[in-house]
Write a structure and sequence with these properties.
This protein is mainly α. The chain has 4 helices and no strands.
């Protein structure tokens, strides 16, 4: 199922727990289209879905830092 593949990908590549991600997907008090939650940037960081907020230049700088570590 597509939903399982998305869940697996997000859980594998972030710090959010599977159960919490599923809870957010099924939350229905703030519907986005038919199901799921919409999180702002700060909320996504707090939930562990992303590591930090920033723009494209921040992402490129982070990428270069990761490359240098390798």
């Amino acid at each position: 199922r597509m939903q399982d593949r998305i869940t697996d990908f997000v859980v594998k590549n972030s710090h959010i727990k599977r159960q919490r991600f599923i809870e957010l997907m099924m939350k229905n008090d703030e519907l986005v289209t038919d199901v799921g939650s919409m999180l702002g940037g700060k909320e996504a960081v707090a939930e562990g879905i992303i590591d930090q907020l920033g723009g494209l230049s921040d992402a490129i700088s982070c990428l270069y830092e990761l490359i240098e570590k390798e």
